[in-house]
Specification:
333 residues; Rossmann fold; 2 domains; six-stranded parallel β-sheet; six-stranded mixed β-sheet; 47% helix; elongated
Length: 333
C-alpha cells in the first residue's frame, strides 16, 4: 500500500512538472514567433509606412518582425533570394509584397511546402499558395483618378498615362481602372498609354521626358491636357520632368501615393490630386493576420485597406492629414 501511495505521489509530481514545462514551452514558442516582412523595395516613403505598421503589430503582439527586401523594385532575383533565405532560416511566417505576380509564385510555393505560411500584401500574386491578401482596391483607385481628371478637363481633351512597370499587379489594376473610366468620355483622347516608368524616380524621370517630348510645342507649351501616373516613383519622376521644363501647373496632373515632395506639389498647384492608400494599415494587418493564423485564431482571406482621393480642397481635414503625413518616428526608435 505504501509503495502504491509513493508511486501515485511520484506520478503526480511528474505530471505537475510536465504541465509546468508545457506552459513554459508555450510561452517560449509565443516569444519565438518570427515574421519576415518582405517589401518590393526599401527606398520609397510608401514602404517606410508599411514597415512602421508591421513594427506596431509586432510590438503589440509580442512577436519578432524581420524587415528585409530588395533596394529597387525591379530586382526580382533579389526578392526571390530574400524569400528563399527566410525559408532556409525557418521563420514562423512570411508577409510578402510581390514585385511580380508570376515570378514570386514558385518561392511562395516553396515556403508552403516547407511549412511556412505566407500572407500577401499590397500587390497580387497568381496562384493560391497563401493565406490572405491584404491590399488597396487598386482598380477603384485608378477609377477615382480617372473621374477626377475627367471632371477637371470638363469631359474633353488629350491625356497621357505613364505606366509603372510590367509584372506589377497593383499598378496594372490602377492603370486599367483609369483607362476604363476615361473611355466613358468620348471627347477625351488617350494619346499615350504604353510607356513604362520603371522602378525608380530616375528611370521615371527619363521616361517622363521621353513621353512628353512629342507633345511639346514650339512655343514651349504642351499639346496635352491631362496626365496620370499610378504610383509614387512614377508621379515624382513626371513631376520633376514637368518642373524642369517649366510646365508644372500648366497641365492637369493626377498621381498616386504620398511623399513630402508630392504634398508640396499639391499645395503649389503642380499636382491636382493624389490617390492615397493606407500602407501603415497594410503592414499592421499583414503581421496581425499571420499571427492570428499561427495562434489558430480566425482571419480574413481578403482585407481591403481603403483608398482615398486627396485634393487641395480636402487635404487639411484631420483624417486626410493623417494619411498624408503620418508620424512614423515613434516606430523607429
Amino acid at each position: 500500500m505504501f509503495r502504491i501511495w509513493i508511486r501515485m505521489v511520484l506520478l503526480g509530481l511528474i505530471f505537475l512538472f510536465l504541465s509546468c514545462g508545457d506552459g513554459k514551452k508555450s510561452e517560449v514558442t509565443t516569444k519565438k514567433i518570427s515574421i519576415a516582412v518582405i517589401p518590393k523595395g526599401t527606398t520609397h516613403e510608401f514602404w517606410k509606412s508599411i514597415h512602421a505598421g508591421a513594427i506596431k503589430a509586432g510590438r503589440e503582439l509580442q512577436v519578432e518582425v524581420i524587415w528585409k527586401g530588395p533596394l529597387k523594385e525591379d530586382d526580382r532575383e533579389a526578392q526571390i533570394s530574400v524569400v528563399e533565405n527566410f525559408i532556409t532560416g525557418g521563420v514562423s511566417g512570411i508577409v510578402l509584397a510581390p514585385l511580380d505576380e508570376t515570378a514570386l509564385m514558385m518561392p511562395v510555393n516553396n515556403a508552403k511546402r516547407a511549412g511556412i505560411p505566407v500572407v500577401i500584401i499590397d500587390s497580387g500574386l497568381k496562384g493560391s499558395d497563401y493565406l490572405s491578401y491584404i491590399a488597396t482596391n487598386n482598380k477603384l483607385g485608378g477609377e477615382l483618378a480617372g473621374k477626377r481628371l475627367a471632371e477637371l478637363l470638363q469631359g474633353k481633351g488629350k491625356v497621357i498615362m505613364l505606366r509603372y512597370q510590367e509584372g506589377s499587379a497593383s499598378t496594372f489594376l490602377r492603370e486599367t481602372g483609369f483607362l476604363e473610366v476615361i473611355q466613358q468620355y468620348p471627347e477625351i483622347q488617350v494619346v499615350s498609354s504604353n510607356q513604362f516608368a520603371g522602378a525608380t524616380t530616375e528611370t521615371a524621370y527619363r521616361a517622363s521626358e521621353n513621353v512628353l517630348a512629342p507633345f511639346k510645342t514650339s512655343d514651349g507649351r504642351l499639346a496635352i491636357d491631362g496626365i496620370f501616373c499610378p504610383n509614387e516613383s512614377s508621379t515624382f519622376g513626371m513631376l520633376r520632368a514637368l518642373q524642369d521644363a517649366n510646365l508644372a501647373g500648366k497641365v492637369r496632373f493626377m498621381g498616386f501615393d504620398s511623399s513630402p515632395k508630392l504634398i508640396e506639389a499639391l499645395e503649389k498647384n503642380d499636382l491636382d490630386g493624389l490617390v492615397l492608400q493606407n500602407p501603415f494599415k497594410m503592414g499592421y494587418l499583414g503581421v496581425k493576420t499571420m499571427v492570428d493564423y499561427l495562434k489558430n485564431q480566425s482571419y480574413e482571406n481578403f482585407i481591403d485597406t481603403g483608398v482615398t482621393l486627396v485634393t487641395r480642397e480636402n487635404m487639411n481635414q484631420p483624417e486626410i492629414h493623417e494619411l498624408i503625413m503620418p508620424d512614423l518616428s515613434q516606430w523607429f526608435n
